[in-house]
Write a structure and sequence with these properties.
By secondary structure, the chain is an alpha+beta fold. The protein contains eleven helices and 20 strands. Strands 1, 2, 9, 10, 11, 12, 19 and 20 form an eight-stranded mixed sheet that branches. It is globular, with a radius of gyration of 21 Å.
């Protein structure tokens, strides 16, 4: 027996749940389904990040990523206030430890101004006054940056969706998708559902879900593990701001940083090492199907060759704790190897094109009855509310939905 819906959303991460809620709020009388393969929401990227509400410092002015982040930061805080969810705007310090980083820091200050983000440059003396355990030749203070609990936000969004009449199917991995002239049929291991229109927010499985619908894509999801440590309890007061290094603009990741979490603990990380399992969060993670898929994609070899030096360095520091520690001691010299305690890793779904280029902004694909989010780059969690509204508006336009 097939259950019929007006619209369906695949994906129980924060982007998928935000999209389902935005659709339900717009089309309150429509039958809308949210499908998630795990038995809980935010089980993957959303639930394995550092909980930072980003202000949008790094992003190209005029890009979707910059616009979504700026709007998402405000929307996330408003959502937390409205629903009494924990958050704190502790601010971020981007610390320059070398002359090269200082030059990059000044360029980031200009980018903040272009993106209408409040920023203050501080010197070495002011940095020590604000953060006695941090050293650098200068820093940028971004007051708007904050922290929250994205899992709780996702759960609250799902509860609002359900209370508004939306249907939820968790524990329902999609095994196939079939599109006809009039509908899309979602086949799961438990049941089948048909829908007039479908929005897919598949995260780590975005490419595979697109291929189920025979979309001719020229990208693949390459998983990168972000490995974290946490500091012991007696070190929980070592910083009061988020402490970030000034990133290398030629690399796609932001570097190892110190993050005061919403539970008052402090995490160190993440790094960025190649993952050999798309959903591998333990110390040893191998999935031969995932490895074979990477090896068979020409873009994988091209991107690995392009970033070979940094990739080797990331892997070495992952295996050798003193190397990892050196990254954070550059700006926090009092930390020792004993301070780095185990903490769960995260996985970043990075879309890579066939020519080996990394997709830095949002990437979408579509069929007559489906819209696919193929790449939702960091900071997708911060940006989830405006992304959900954007996808709602795209669905209205693409599918000519009744208002």
């Amino acid at each position: 027996m097939v259950t019929h819906y007006d619209m369906a959303v695949i994906g129980g991460g924060i982007v998928g749940v935000s999209t389902a809620l935005a659709l339900k709020q717009k089309f309150c009388n429509a039958a809308i389904l949210l499908v998630e393969k795990e038995d809980r929401f935010a089980a993957h990227q959303t639930g394995h990040n550092s909980g930072v509400i980003h202000a949008g410092v790094y992003y190209q002015p005029g890009s979707l990523k910059a616009d979504f982040c700026r709007k998402g930061s405000l929307a996330t805080i408003d959502f937390c206030k409205e629903h009494n969810l924990p958050f704190r705007q502790c601010g971020k310090l981007l610390v320059a430890a070398t002359a090269v980083e200082y030059e990059r820091m000044q360029a980031l200050e200009q980018r903040c101004m272009q993106n209408n983000i409040a920023v203050h440059q501080i010197d070495r003396r002011e940095l020590i006054r604000m953060e006695p355990h941090i050293q650098g030749i200068g820093a940028l203070l971004v007051p708007a940056t904050g922290i929250c609990d994205f899992v709780k936000i996702t759960q609250k969004m799902a509860a609002l969706f359900r209370s508004s009449g939306g249907d939820i199917q968790t524990g329902s991995a999609v095994t196939n998708l079939t599109e006809t002239r009039d509908q899309v049929v979602l086949h799961t291991q438990n049941h089948s559902f048909s829908t007039r229109y479908l929005v897919v927010c598949g995260g780590l499985m975005a490419d595979r879900l697109a291929k189920m619908m025979h979309i001719d894509i020229d990208f693949s999801i390459i998983p990168f593990r972000g490995e974290y440590y946490r500091l012991p309890g007696h070190r929980s007061g070592i910083v009061s701001h988020l402490i970030y290094p000034v990133p290398d603009p030629d690399l796609p990741f932001l570097g190892v940083h110190l993050t005061p979490m919403i539970d008052n603990s402090i995490t160190v990380g993440p790094n960025a090492v190649l993952g050999f399992k798309r959903e591998g969060y333990g110390r040893v993670n191998l999935d031969f199907a995932d490895i074979a898929a990477m090896a068979g994609f020409s873009g994988f070899w091209k991107v690995m060759a392009r970033h070979l030096g940094s990739g080797i360095k990331e892997q070495m520091d992952s295996l050798w704790k003193p190397g990892y520690l050196a990254r954070v001691r550059k700006y926090c010299p009092s930390l020792t190897a004993k301070d780095l305690l185990p903490f769960p890793a995260g996985i970043r779904a990075q879309a890579v094109m066939g020519d080996g280029s990394l997709v830095h902004d949002f990437l979408f694909a579509r069929t007559p009855r489906s819209l696919h989010v193929c790449n939702a780059p960091s900071p997708a969690a911060t940006s989830a509310i405006p992304i959900g509204r954007y996808l709602r508006d795209q669905a209205i336009s693409l599918f000519d939905l009744d208002h």
